[in-house]
Amino acid sequence: MSMFTDELLNQLDLDQLYELKTRIEQKIAEKRKEAAEALRREIERKATILGMSVEEFLAFMQGEGKGHRKGKKEPAPAVYRHPTNPNHPGWSGRGRVPAWIVEWENQGRSRDELRVR
After folding, report:
1. pLDDT digits over 1-10, tens only?
2. Which of 29, 36, 92, 114 is the one with CA 20 to 30 A from 10?
């Protein structure tokens, strides 16, 4: 802020500062509403240009439109199998190393022994 603004604020007592704060918050809410309305009109205009409804446009922007992948990605296939539990899904080799592989390696064993062949 400028020194001029600081000087004006310094002249206000606490009640006046709270009143100013309330008025500023109201003005911010008003300006936000105006900006949101302008954005809504712009989205409607651009959706119309693209031959879409607003709902279709928003779905497209969220990755649900044509040409976009729907739903979650498939988990990566297991590269390493659990050494003692054949029903365990295994580990893809991505992300954090599971405790059972860390334990296996701490026993002096090789991770390559667990590789799915």
Report:
1. 677 788 999 9
2. 29
Q: How confident is the model over 53-82, as pLDDT tens digits?
A: 888 888 888 876 555 555 677 888 999 999
For residue 59, which amino acid is it?
Answer: A
Domain ranges of the chain: 3-61, 72-117
Q: How far apart are CA 65 and CA 51, in angstroms?
A: 13
Start-end of H helices in the chain = 3-10, 14-49, 54-61, 99-106
pLDDT at residue 58 in the model:
84
Handedness of CA 99, 100, 101, 105 (dihedral sign): positive
68: tokens are: 């976009």
